[in-house]
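Two proteins were folded this term; both appear here.
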Amino acid sequence: NPLYSHGAQLNTLNRNNNGGTSHTYLKYQKLYQFIFNEGQKMEHISFQKEFFITELSDIPTQKSFHDLKLNEIRKGAVQKRIDFFRQPFFDHFSVIIIAAGHYPKLYDFDMESIFNVEYKLDESFELGKGNWCNIHYESGKKKILIHTRQLSTNVFDKLLRKMAELIRPFI
């Protein structure tokens, strides 16, 4: 099933082909568990049953961030995705998470105009060591957009729990 392609993956870090998954998928799974399963760990990866995930850019950053040519290509890729995210398909999502760190600022990705939301400074927060969320709402609070760091290594459970608290009323 392409909508749930990793259902057989174990809810553990992949080491030596043990059937596990990546740091990022483990964080999405933990968020899923905080939202839908009271934080109880599940045996297999299951977040894809409820989450739709796509990327702002398919060019990896870790080794290419300082490559000027790749940065220009990356900026073009992010800009092309603006039209994609403006499609009516995304209007049906009551929860949007942009787990892309500073990509929106670096690559002129205006989340407010693209998703028709407004930034709420008084509800945004930082929990320390790069664990932060900027909160946006559609007028009437029918939709929440949470902008945060990439969900990979060094993400606090406290951040994921807080995100789950914010998300629950919208599902």
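Next, the second protein.
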Amino acid sequence: HSRKKKDDSDTNDENDMKVLKHWTFDIGLIVVGLVILVFASDLLVKQAVFIAQAIGISEAVTGLTIVAAGTSMPELATSIVAATKKQSDIAIGNIVGSNIFNILAIMGLSALVRPITALQVNHVDLLVMLAVSILLLPLVRTGFRIVRREGILLVLVYLAYMMYLLMGTAA
């Protein structure tokens, strides 16, 4: 009997170690990912500013287009994967949560580091952001579900906004 208890105890210890190794490995991957993200973000901003200056686009338009799209790719990937796995709450919650976090935490923390001025981001840009947020309310009226035609509408509104930004730059 004592041998069986010892074997059971060893098995539990091994399982505990596997869980601990797995958990610590995941934390390590998160830390490595964050370090890479910091360097990649710096590279994205530097190169986006370089491109903007080379082709005569303002930093605001660059931030509203290239940088915004680049930094939103993780949300896009997460939401597409969640949608294909029929995890709609993850797909929509990811976007809503990300936008709330970006507006409140990211803008707030950035302002703590250094006061932020964005003279080239105008009222139209802020009104488009507000209008699109309000547009989501009727789109999710049917059980918080966005169907394909509503998805197409959202993409078309985005493309129209991009054209507005880029045509304003060309003028």
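The chain has five helices and no strands. The chain has a mean pLDDT of 81. These notes refer to the second protein only.
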